[in-house]
Amino acid sequence: MVMVKEPSEKVFNGTFDGSGTAGWFSAGTDLTAADERLRIQVPGGTHVPYDVIVGQNDILLEPNTPYSISFTASASRPVTIKAQVQLSDSPYTATWSQDVGLGTNPQQYHFSFTGNLDTKRGQVSFQLGGSGEPWVFTLDEVSLVGGKPYDRYIPETKPPVRVSQVGYLPAAPKHATVVTDAPDPLSWQVVTGAGQAVASGSSTPRGLDASSGEKVHTIDFSTVTEPGTGYTLRVGGQESFPFDIAESVYDRLRRDALQFFYAQRSGIAIDNALAPGYARAAGHVGVPPNLGDTDVPCQPGTGDYRLDVRGGWYDAGDHGKYVVNGGIATAQLLGQFERTTTAKVVTKGALGDGTLDIPERGNKVPDILDEARWELEFLLRMQVPAGKPNAGMAHHKVHDQAWTGLPCLPDQDPQPRQLHPPSTAATLNLAATAAQAARLYRSFDSAFADRCLAAARTAWQAARDHQSMYARPDDSNGGGPYDDTDVRDEFYWAAAELFITTGEQPFLDFLRGSPFWTGDAFGNSGPDWKSVAGLGRIDLATVPSKLPDNDRDAARASVRAAADRYLKIIQDQAYGVPLGENDYTWGANSVILNKLMVIGVAFDITDDQRYRDGVLEGLGFILGRNALNRSYVTGYGSRCSKNQHSRIYAHQLDPRFPQPPAGSIAGGPNPGLEDPKAKKMLLDPSTGERPKPQFCYVDDIESWSTNEVAINWNSALSWVASFAADQGRHDGPNPLDEVKISMGANRQVDVVLPAGWSIVVHSAAPAR
Ligand code: 9MR
């Protein structure tokens, strides 16, 4: 944590305490911190001072202003460096420049000057080049004080009346939250787009909301059921953003959340006719400057072969492709589709052929399966071929050797790509998704289904033979680690999918021996890329299989138990969100959505409206009913996220690039603040304190830990959006489907009716 004392301190993380090199850059050398100091290996053979630089950009500088600069520095042998305060880009004008002779013992240096630059793009830097021999530079306690106090970022959150900015289903509950210090209930009114008040009541004071640090009331205006657009909620002279009430309120979101995946595709040109504004050349198809993905070598020491691993989706804002995260994203698309074959409340055909704008549209295969197959084909390519070491395992990931900058279109990525070592987790992700695919594609393409099942079996056996090959947590140069050293849940998930698809006893035997057979599969955060037992449990609970009835009942009961826990949190939270104040983390919005998925499954298997209502209420948080009064989905709501961290959707940095497509969800509030931008914008410069969890978010492209796009986050949104849309206009439930008629032992007909139904026997019409 940074501990800057002066309110007008301009240098961020000048003490290198705990935050590593956050906020600093280097040129001509690597940036490394050790022992809470910057420690730079300066290469030899350079000519001029600016051949090697370390420094910090985005420094606010004012004209005619006194500054004092100080730092502690030393060198492995006596050298002279140049310290500067200057513009960070051309013409690089310096307002202060000083040659500084360094000795081998750390010494504190202190200088004063009057600045004459007027810029937000200032730079404090140390030029270290010009030496024939290499040396080591050590830097600490860097400070530049002067000018206006640090301008703390205060987000715009008005108005204080918070609703789902997208809207509500006519027949669903409608809740809102108001930020107010008023101790007593406030009166409210719902007003139509035409200005007519249609409902009124008084709010419920809820006291301090710990996740935001603000006092709030809640409002229930569920009595308003008349469809319409442009409704607002008025409380104490304040008016909410407008919202709709309609059966179709989630229909566009269902399509857009899924359409996101096409724009993330690797290995294919994105067609402007299908994704207007997002056209780009095919990425990583072996055309320079790309060096992948058609012929990718293994990382040194991993294998002496090369693989064609083209295709799939780019994981997130980076160009990496990770089997582990590809696994859950694919499983959620497959599960979203499979749900429509088992749940009662579904809109027939809503995920069918012709529902997305993708090249495969019109091929008689549901578009969601076409999209998922784009990733599945990539996952299959990541399997180690027969005859190679660890055959049958899946490589953990393929990505750039070093991080690229932003923006960067995929076809322009010049980095070498590498296959990282196989892992047990990746192999089981392949086994699980390929096994699920085998049953879902069977009726559309039996050869593909066979190929998937064979790969799943091979992967399963390979994982059994290599049960503890783990991805390294520090393998994060040029890509994320997705490390995981507990793969019991991956084994359970893969066994579940293989059992459901094949019905074979050994898989059931394996399941019975798993700690998850009776253990909680959902935990406190629902399924995520690292905890996948819930994915298997949901399918055991919902997909017809040879699972004995009592075991299926137990699986269902466990889904309900988890859903009940999450519902309770929703009820306790004044913003109707299934997260407690300490549950916000990297990708928090996906944690919310994954918990909503579990609650949605509970509705599917019970028909209990409380679960349906919980899903819709939680989705309201994502769409604007939150402390930042923001919809986290691009293109949805009056104030929405649109600067997500992405090399492709880098509009914020360069207007020639697009913003993320409508339907892209941002990672969300994350008190971890694991990127320098979020730290710089949100940490209190004088105390180092961070804001309350809901405020730990910035819609800035450089904040990857609060504001990235990612396939596993959009897959969660897609599942929930589809569920929600189904609750609007759907084809069921048809009570007649539930009537069970059988022959009784005593020559009687036994009729079992759904709860609440009765039989009226009419006399037969006389025969003519
Ligand atoms: O979603 C991942 C999150 O759970 C981890 O805490 C974080 C740090 O390891 O990584 C996230 O995943 C990122 C991945 O490593 C690289 N591509 C972007 C992903 C989303 O930020």
Task: Give the secondary structure arrangement, pairings included.
Layout lengths: L24 E3 L5 E2 L2 E6 L10 E9 L3 E11 L3 E9 L6 E9 L4 E9 L3 E9 L7 E12 L14 E2 L4 E2 L6 E5 L7 E5 L5 E6 L1 E6 L4 E7 L7 E8 L2 E2 L3 E3 L5 H13 L32 E2 L8 E2 L13 E2 H20 L24 H15 L12 E2 L1 E4 L16 E3 L2 E2 H17 L5 H20 L22 H15 L2 H9 L19 H10 L6 H24 L15 H19 L2 H14 L53 H7 L28 H16 L8 H4 L1 E4 L5 E4 L16
Parallel strand pairs: 12-20
Antiparallel strand pairs: 1-4, 2-3, 3-10, 4-9, 5-8, 5-10, 6-7, 6-9, 11-13, 13-17, 14-15, 14-18, 16-17, 18-19, 18-20, 21-22, 23-25, 24-27, 25-26, 28-29
Helix pairs in contact: 1-13, 2-3, 2-4, 2-13, 3-4, 4-5, 4-6, 5-6, 6-7, 6-8, 8-9, 8-10, 9-10, 9-11, 10-11, 10-13
The structure holds ligand 9MR.
Characterize this entry briefly.
Strands 12, 14, 15, 18, 19 and 20 form a six-stranded mixed beta sheet that branches. Strands 1-4-9-6-7 form a five-stranded antiparallel beta sheet, with no helix packed on it. Strands 2-3-10-5-8 form a five-stranded antiparallel beta sheet, with no helix packed on it.
List keywords for this structure.
single chain, binds ligand 9MR, 20% strand, 29 strands, alpha+beta, Glycosyltransferase, Jelly Rolls, 3 domains, 768 residues
CATH domain topology of the largest domain: Glycosyltransferase
Question: Quaternary state, please?
Answer: single chain
Overall tally of structural domains: 3
Strand content: 15-25%
Reading off the top of the CATH hierarchy, the class of the largest domain is best stated as Mainly Alpha
Radius of gyration from the alpha-carbon trace, in angstroms: 29 Å
> What does the largest sheet look like?
6 strands, mixed
User: Which blocks of ≥5 consecutive residues have pLDDT under 50?
Assistant: none
Write down the overall mean pLDDT: 95
Structural class: alpha+beta
Number of E strands: 29
